[in-house]
Amino acid sequence: MATYEFDLLIVGAGPAGCTLALNLAGTGIRIAMLEKDVFPRHKICGDALSGKVLNVMKRIPGNVYERFINEVDKIPSWGIRFTAPNHHFADVPFLLNRDEGQPAPGYICRRNDFDNFMFERLKEHPDIQIIEGEKIELVISDPDQVVAKTQNHEYRGKVIAGADGVHSIVRKSQQNNLVDKKHFCLGIRGYFENVGDLHPENFIELIFLKRLLPGYFWIFPSTGGLVNAGFGMMQNRISECRENLSQILKDIISNDPLIAPRFSKARIVGKAEAHTLPLGTYKFNQFGHRYILLGDAAFLVDPFSGEGIGNAMASGEIAAAILKQNFINNDFSADSLKPYDTRLRRRFSQEFRTMSVIQHLAHSAGLFNLVVDKASKNRAVSELLTAMYSNDNIRKKLTRPGFYMRLLFS
Ligand SMILES: Cc1cc2nc3c(=O)[nH]c(=O)nc-3n(C[C@H](O)[C@H](O)[C@H](O)COP(=O)(O)OP(=O)(O)OC[C@H]3O[C@@H](n4cnc5c(N)ncnc54)[C@H](O)[C@@H]3O)c2cc1C
Question: Would you say domain 2-72+106-178+281-355 falls under CATH 3.50.50.60?
């Protein structure tokens, strides 16, 4: 079996793995990017890139953000339309004041295009060696090194970063945890043409149907005149249903009184596809002897919104900062990698706690109806929801019972 030696092995060239590699490029660390697929690879997603994604991208060296803005096919997004179970809606702009010519605060960009754009950036760095089309099947570590094995090859490194998604082989090889269903959401999406009544300003739409709570149905305008539409549902709720995800999707677009009229002339392009989202409600060690976990492999998806790309990239950025120090000290013990876990918790713990309380509250259709009704009539409430996307203190407000009591009587 052929053997290859590197300093850092990264498994998975999604947003988490690429962000880590690009932030370490040029530091002298010899990086192997090990990816099972061949890019441009297929990825099931809602394709919504939030401000978090853009902020991390702005800090990646090499004008990555500017090139993304100028070179990649995408739709700008200026806000969210929330539709409550009672069918009332509220438009919540991402920005309270918008200047002429200002870049959008968010985008909808097909993952095949976005991920391929990030992947292409890797090729600009000679110290990143890309190994595509080889699946890592086992990861073993000993006191001196870590080894990632494919069917025909062995890749050896000082440390390994598992950025290999929800079914991470790095996590499974190093930890043997059985994770409760309540920490997973399942999402299904399809691309459709001829969907009616799209938002005039390309706001993304989150439609809270009673049968999906605390999940929602989404309609996101996409490139090529298509729409990315689908829904997310907690895994434990799906187990209670008699139907599978495709049947539920079909039923919603054919029969739901709010959605069906908009899909009456629509046609699906390709097929509807589903995948799992690992939620940030699951707490475990995202590091150990000679390994760290990033993105979906580390359960970093927002428990309420289902957003995972920005968090995956943020974990890549944090990992790069920590690993630089590990390489200086030439120490990859569990103790020396603990600061990664600490930084990750500092960055996400409060946010995930808050969003999981909001996720619990979102089981109540009545509460949704109340918030959306007030937001549609009351500018202050709408502005509060706008601020929720950038301000953790505002998010915390939404978890307190007093907030809803005041709303009721306002
Ligand atoms: C239906 C759905 C809709 C979603 N919508 C949104 C959205 O609109 N906005 C948002 O922010 N998030 C969304 N998410 C979440 C988002 O897709 C993920 O959180 C994000 O892709 C995580 O990035 P990552 O880099 O951690 O993992 P991934 O993007 O999954 O990348 C992992 C990479 O690892 C590779 N890999 C896996 N196993 C191996 C192996 N054994 N060997 C080698 N390579 C391997 C894979 O091929 C892949 O390229 C959605 C998820 C789903 C399922």
Answer: yes
Taking the centre of ligand 1 as the mean of its atom positions, its distance from the CA of residue 106, in whole angstroms, is: 19
Specify whether domain 181-278 bears CATH 3.40.50.170.
Answer: no
CA of 165 to the centre of ligand 1 (A): 5
Determine the length of the chain.
Answer: 410
Strand 79-83 to strand 128-132: parallel, antiparallel, or no bridges (unpaired)?
unpaired
Query: Dihedral (C-alpha) 350, 355, 356, 357: value to the nearest 10 degrees?
Result: 90
Q: pTM score, two decimals?
A: 0.94
Amino acid at 214: P
For tokens 């990698």, the residue is 337
Compute the distance from residue 243 Cα to the ligand 1 centre, in Å.
25
Residues in contact with ligand 1 by the CB-under-6-Å rule are 11-17, 34-37, 41, 43-48, 135-136, 163-165, 169, 187, 189, 230, 275, 277, 295-296, 301, 306-310, 312
Token reading at 80: 């969210």
CA-301 nearest atom, ligand 1: 19
Phi, psi of 195 (to 5 degrees): -80, 135
pLDDT in tens, 250-274: 999 999 999 999 999 999 999 999 9
What span, in angstroms and rounded, lies between the C-alpha atoms of 99 and 92? 17
- As annotated, the residues of the chain forming the CATH 3.30.9.100 domain(s) are 181-278
**Where, residue-wise, is CATH 3.50.50.60 in the chain?**
2-72+106-178+281-355
Taking only the tens place, the pLDDT of each residue in 20-74 is 999 999 999 999 999 999 999 999 999 999 999 999 999 999 999 999 999 999 9
